[in-house]
Amino acid sequence: MLARTMLAFLATAGLFYVNIMPALVSGLIEALGFNKEDAGLVAAFNVYGAALGAFAAVFIVKIWSWRKTSVVLLFALIVADLISIFIAEPLLLMVMRFLHGAIGGLLVGVGFSIIARTKEADKTFGILLLVQFGLGGVGVIFIPPLVPEFGTAVLFSSLIAFSLITLCMLPFIPQYDKNANPVKGKPQSIRKLPLSAALLALFLFQAANMGLYAFIIELGKVAGLETELISTIIGVSAWFGILGSLLVVWLSTRVGRGLPLTIGIIFTAISTLGLHYAEQEWAFWLANINIAIAWAFVIPYILGLCAEFDQQGQMAALGGFASKMGLASGPLVAALMVTGFSYTVLINIAALVLVLSMIAAWWPSRLLDKTPKIR
User: Fold this and answer.
1) Are 64 and 117 contacting, i.e. CB atoms less than 8 angstroms apart?
2) Pair 199, 322: CB distance under 8 Å
3) What's the domain range around 196?
4) Which of 97, 128, 149, 323 could hold 46 in an S-S bridge, CB 3.0 to 4.6 Å?
């Protein structure tokens, strides 16, 4: 369990800003006077950079030493965050955060490839979500109040601190072999069609959730809720997301993957539709808590699908790319939608995309459920 936790930190360090995204965007607006569009673009460039880095990881995870690579990338992240503290011009910050994202995405891809080589990768991905939601909730609640006094330094310093902690853990992570999950009697090959379906499911699920999450504060404001209350609800909901991660660790693949994925994604879609009643404080609480739990529950299973269809770890890194593209594209499309339409349309589209994600995940998950376990 300790090794899984350290791997979770490694795979989180390059993308932790996503877990505190509301705090990051709000901080740029308040501390630097960015308008909402510029603050949103900084966030989007950060994640698109991560997608580029994750894609590059697909080609290097089987070539470079993952431990040495991780050390270099963590130091590069720290330097990028330090430089970001002193940038106050939107365009320059977009460029720097894109570079930061590319470095971080590469690190996440490396982390995913190592996780894919572990036994019961689903459990490790569950720990990954536990770390992300747990610490992300802390950041969303406690960072925004510090911004007026410390400015953007508190935002980027929190990312630096996470990278430093991960650096300290790195020497204690076990050395995983390339074939930690050999399939007896069969050559290890990539099953492209089911893998493609799993990647599509991952992209759609992340896009639907992050597209709505990026505008959740504005949605709450339109519904008549106070900003401070909205931030508290989002942060506390992230902590509840830990329950979803713990459920994955406990349940693993005892009942297969198809059933948990189907139930989890349907539950996410229903909870998303609950945001139609956001003007009711209890409904906003309930919807956000349920979405956080379901998000943390479903993602480890989909990432586990990608890992199972290529246990050398290369396609797990591609899963990281699909995830980042979803996280970046969701808010981009949502921004265009809320400009010309209401949040009602955004909620309905998000729920529909979640259903499409469930359909895409059904075949590869059932395919694995029907495959005898021989290792």
Assistant:
1) no
2) yes
3) 2-173+190-370
4) 97
259: number of Cβ within 10 Å: 13
What element of type H or E holds 37?
helix 36-60
* Exposure of 345 in the CB half-sphere (CA atoms within 13 A): 10
Structure tokens at 362: 């059904």
DSSP 279: T
Looking at the predicted structure, is the pLDDT value of residue 31 above 70? yes
Domains held by the chain: number: 1
- Which phi and psi (to 5°) does residue 63 adopt? -110, -50
Question: Which helix (DSSP H) or strand (DSSP E) does residue 256 occupy?
Answer: none
Q: Residue 137: which pLDDT band, with cuts at 50, 70 and 90?
A: confident
Q: In this model, does residue 375 exceed pLDDT 50?
A: no
**What is the b/e burial string over 178-192, where b = at least 16 CB atoms within 10 angstroms of the residue's CB?**
eebbeeeeeeeeeee
Which secondary-structure segment (H or E) carries 238?
A: helix 227-251
- Which is more confident, 114 or 268? 268
* Residue 200 belongs to some domain of the structure: yes
Identify which of 119, 116, 127, 120 has the alpha carbon closest to the alpha carbon of residue 257: 120
The two tokens of residue 189 are 């090959």
Helices 258-273 & 281-308 angle (0-180, nearest 10)? 150
And the tokens for 35? 């308008």
Cα separation of 374 and 313, whole Å? 19
Tokens 């979405």 belong to 291
CATH number at residue 159: 1.20.1250.20
Helix, strand, coil percentages in the chain from 3-state DSSP, rounded to 5:
80, 0, 20
User: Within a 13 Å sphere around the CA of 169, how many CA atoms are in the beta-carbon half?
Assistant: 21
Question: Which has the closest alpha carbon to 163: 15, 54, 57, 23?
Answer: 15
What pLDDT, on the 0 to 100 scale, is given for residue 89?
A: 95
Residue 75 lies in a domain: yes
